[in-house]
Amino acid sequence: MGQDKLRWGILGCAGIAKRAVIPGIQQSETGVVAAIASRNEENAKKTAEALHIPTAYGSYEALLNDDSIDAIYIPLPNHLHKEWTIKAAEAGKHVLCEKPIALDAEEAAEMVAACAKAGVKLAEAFMHRQHPRYVRIKEIIKSGEIGEIRGMHGAFTFNSSSNLGNVRFDKAMGGGSIYDVGVYPISTARMILGQEPEAATVHAFFSPEHDDVDMMASGILEFSGGVALTFDCGMWAANRNTLEILGTEGRIEVPSAYVTKQNAEDHFFVTVKGERREVEVPYRNQYALQADDFGRSVLEGKALKFEPSDAVLNMRVVDACLKSARDRARVVIS
After folding, report:
1. Could you tell me if residue 111 is left (phi over 0), alpha (psi between -120 and 50 degrees) or otherwise beta?
2. Residue 218 — φ and ψ, nearest 5°?
3. In what order do the strands lie in the sheet with 213-222?
4. Are the CB atoms for 54 and 35 separated by under 8 Å?
5. Which part of the chain is the Gfo/Idh/MocA-like oxidoreductase N-terminal domain (predicted)?
6. Which of 82, 87, 93, 99 is flagged as catalytic?
7. What pLDDT does residue 3 have?
């Protein structure tokens, strides 16, 4: 592209954008946050001032019409991901879309096709997959130190149940714990095992107080060779953010598997034959790593670590989990 930095526009003033993604881009090597848009211009201006963003717009369309913007980050509610990804692609902007990329695999496939047609990059914002500790974890597994993998368990829970106005509790907007946090252990298991699950069985607590979205879900994904991911996710439970990988000879525990503590070392633990050791991993800003993976793909033509086709595959699993929870049945994933 003949430029040093990718110029980002932020489509909305969501908390994840202000708290994590914008600072991550600003700390990245490849990107700058050049503009932000909100349907409330005053909100856009206040956010821009607080986060030192040069330009604020009072509509999403105005941001997409800014020819100086190269890439768009979309942290909008889930039901708006497809619409604004396609509009951004048609405006010639590369797109980093917050997870889950869409409401279902069909929508995700439409988004991938639209971006391919427009010749722009598309990525799903799973920041934790960029962290170098997962490279180290996969190296340990490949070395055979913990033996053959027999199973995995992932947990991601928190309690925000009292905030009844939260978009996560709106069924039409794509609310629910599977969409919001269940996607993390699902995507992580697929990444570590390097394969797609064959079936899903999920049991969920649907709360009438929260528009009947799944406020807690527990499930099992069946992989080949008798290996399974068991997981639970929730928005009305005590905080957990963990991953365990169980092998025939040992296990790996990741205490902060998806969301890491700011400026804290992101260590994990390996136990073999009763001896537990800590694997030291220096702090890395996952959001900056995510921005740089995307930025180098656009600026230097490097392949994304996770192509958009992966997002479609992940949504197929999510679709199966949601169907299983609603129907109270095992769902085969084609």
Report:
1. alpha
2. -130, 135
3. 275-279, 268-272, 250-254, 236-247, 149-159, 228-234, 213-222, 199-207, 331-332
4. yes
5. 6-124
6. 99
7. 72
Pairing assessment for the beta strands 149-159 and 236-247 based on DSSP bridges: antiparallel
The C-alpha atoms of residue 324 and residue 202 are separated, in whole angstroms, by 5
Count of positions (residues) in the chain: 334
Token pair, residue 1, equals 């592209």
Q: In angstroms, rounded to a whole number, what is the distance separating the alpha carbons of residues 136 and 143? A: 11
Please say whether the beta carbons of 138 and 192 come within 8 A.
yes
Q: Evaluate whether 48 touches 33 at the Cβ level (below 8 Å).
A: no
Amino acid occupying residue 100: P
**Residue 263: partners with Cβ closer than 8 Å, 6 or more residues away:** 283
DSSP state of 260: P
Please give the structure tokens belonging to residue 215: 């406020």
Tell me the pLDDT tens digit for each residue of 64-110: 999 999 999 999 999 999 999 999 999 999 999 999 999 999 999 99
Query: What six digits make up the tokens of 255?
Result: 């205490």
Which domains are delineated in the chain?
6-128 (3.40.50.720), 132-283+315-332 (3.30.360.10)
- Per the annotation, the verdict on 5 as an active-site residue is no
Helix (H, G, I), strand (E, B) or coil at 135: helix
Q: What are the Cα distances from residue 94, in Å, to 90, 115, 279?
A: 10, 8, 36
pTM above 0.90, yes or no: yes
Beta bridge partners of 9: 35, 72
For 118, half-sphere exposure in the C-beta direction (CA atoms, 13 angstrom radius) is 20
Show the CA angle centred on residue 236, arms to residues 230 and 237, nearest 5°: 60
Q: Give pLDDT < 50 ranges for the chain.
A: none
**pLDDT, tens only, 170-215:** 999 999 999 999 999 999 999 999 999 999 999 999 999 999 999 9
pLDDT of residue 119: 98
pLDDT at 263: 66
CB neighbours of residue 224 within 10 Å: 10
Residue 296's nearest CA partner among 42, 96, 61, 91 is 96
